[in-house]
Every structure is written in C-alpha cells, then in structure tokens.
Give the backbone structure.
Amino acid sequence: MKLLPVISLLALTSATSALDNGLMRTPPMGWMSWERFRCNIDCENDPKNCISENLFRDMADRLAEDGWKEMGYDHVMIDDCWSSMLRDKDGRLQPDPQRFPGGIAKLARYLHDRGLKLGIYGDLGTHTCGGYPGTTLDKIDTDAQTFASWGVDFLKLDGCYSNEEEQQKGYPLMSKALNATGRPIGYSCSWPAYRGGLPPSVNYTLLGEICNLWRNYDDIQDSWDSVQDITDWFFDNQEILQPEAAPGRWNDPDMLIIGNFGLSVDQSRSQMALWAIMAAPLIMSNNLRTLSSEARAILQNGAAIAINQDPMGVQGRRLLQERSQIEVYWRPLSQSASALVFLSRRQDMPYRYHTSLAKLNYTAGSYEAYDVFTGKTLSGLSAATEFTVSINPSGVVMWYWVSFTLETPAWLYHSRLGCTRK
Ligand code: GLA
C-alpha cells in the first residue's frame, strides 16, 4: 500500500456487508428515461419522445449497436409513467396498453436478446410521483412477483406518497419479496432521499443490507447548477456517505445528464470525473439517437469508466477546497493506483494550479500518470515533484496514477490504463 494509512482504513471500511443478491459488485451502468424524457405521454404528437415501448427499444438498439454495451452500459431503465392508471382484475400493475402494446415481458425479451437488462420503476406509496398507481404495503409481494414474471432485472422503488412508518416497513419488505421471486433483481431504494439523506433519520447500515443502491438526495436537473449542488451535498457529507459505499451497495447522486442541453463540454467532463470519483452509478438520461460526438467521447471514456468501475469499490473523497476555487478530489483504486480530479469553480479563465503529490498526502515513491481526457502520460514523478495543471472554468483535469514503488511491470501498467475495457 503506497498511499497514506488513511487508505488502508478506507479499504477496511469497504468490508461493510451488502445485500446478498450478488448483484452490482461495481456501480450499475446504463440508461434511464426520467431526466431527459420525464412524463411525456403524448405519443400522438410526439411519438419519438414519449414514454412508450418504442423509446426503450430505440435506446436498447443504440446501446447494443453504438459501442455502449461493450463499455458496460447494459441496463435500459423505465422510469415513471409507464403503467396504466388502473391495476388489472387480479390487482396487478399493467403497462399502458396504447404505449406498451407488446407488454413488458416482450420488451424484456427484446433487451435480453441483445445482452441487455431491463429496469422498471415503482413507488412505495399510494401513487408514483407522477400520479400512477403506487405499491402500498399490501401490494409489495404481488408487484415483486409481477416484475419477476416479466423478466425485469432491476427495480427503482421511489417513495412519493408514503410516510416514514410505511417506508420503514416497505423498503425491507420489497427487498425480501424480490429475493423470494428467485430472480436476481437489482434494487434501488429512494428511501434516504425522502428522509433528508442523513442519520439519524437514515440508517445506512440497514440500507446496505437491503438495497444495491440508493438515491440520497434531490433529483438532478439539466444544468451545471444542479450538478454543483449535488456534488457539494455529497462531498460536504463525505464523512457519513463515503464509508457506506462498497461492492453491491452504492450511493446514487442521480443520472448523468451529459449529452443534453445544460452542460458545456468542460462541465460534461466534470460530471463524468466527479461521478467516477464518487463510485456513482453511471446511468445516462439523454437522447442516444442524437448525441454529439463530444458527449459520446466523454461518456465512453475508457479510463473514466475503469476508475468508476474499480473492483475495490471504495468511494473517493474531496481532499481540498482552495481559496482559488480549485478543488481536489481523490479516489483510491485497486493495485495501489488512484485517481485525482482537479475541478475549477472559477468563471474567468484557465487556472494554473501548482501542487505535488506530497502536498496531496501521497507517500514517497515513483509515480506515473495518465491524463484521462487528453490521453497524455507523465512519468518519472516522485511525490515531491512540483507540477502545474491548467484547469478550464467549470472544467476538470483528471489523472489516473500508478505507483511504481512495488516495481509494477510495464505490461501491467499498460493493461491497467482503462482503455482496455473495449
Ligand atoms: C422522483 C424521482 C425521480 C423520478 C420521478 C418520477 O422525483 O426522484 O428520479 O423517478 O420521481 O416521477
């Protein structure tokens, strides 16, 4: 172990127990409808963009044909507004018959045939946030069984229209009900987001035992302000949140909005870098049919993805907030590698930030770095070597570091540069 003792401590905390369904040992990846397509059900006037089986099939085609699946983006997740306003005569949820004429089971088969997985949305409460039928406590078993019978692989269980007591009962009950179906179904719990996201109202030990991931905080919107607000909340509370993440159990700062309307190219890199540091689920919500080449390159950046998906599964931390409005983030990775992100909150011009690994608490040794967004490498650095990074306003510089002190063979170093995921 080359870095400070703090790292060994962090590695230890990742031994926290996780939901025992064997799923999501690295943060889930894929695509979800909500942020980009919301509750647009106007298929008559907006057939390409409304919540319908065509939208999910289209996105599945894109994931399968445009190189996404190979990079790890393998889930297509239906969010709210998919269901009929009424349950069927046996009390089961059913999809809207006009918008999902083939039914969910057929859509699941379409995805499975392409090596993809299907996620669906439910809400513990009387209604979903969009006003569709919810899952009250008496419906938990039925809904779990229905989802399993359709071949669903993932459930996002929202928490609109339920109270604290119902959530306390319902989230663990759904976990049991999903397990009882015998089908492996990843389980995302929005519970903490409805209880302020912090202890004592939120019990992260319990959440880790019953859910694979959980939404801790507010919904992301299509803006840099929203990305910054979420980032600040997660890192301001890192003492509490960071130790809770581990293989099979992840904090979820919400969807990637890269490729939409609110972020510049620099800001898009910033979201990708910060989500990689946070070990966040990489769930895009964008229009994969019309993505720009810049957005695609950022979302398919092999090194950023490899950092996000590091098998050790230790969430990163904010190390510094400088008066210059430069912030430094760090994540320890397996094989004594690490990632560093330099983020500029400035609004003037590229800022030249001077530092060294020693100043960032790295121990003595010999280091090499790979610049995640430019592909350049730096070698022969010692912890004491002073260096300068030029960081664009609201942009990042992101480095993947390898320590050579253990005499890592060159082939191992090269095979670890993330670009090998393809
Ligand atoms: C809540 C959730 C969102 C989305 C909407 C759907 O706001 O946090 O992610 O699922 O409900 O109505």
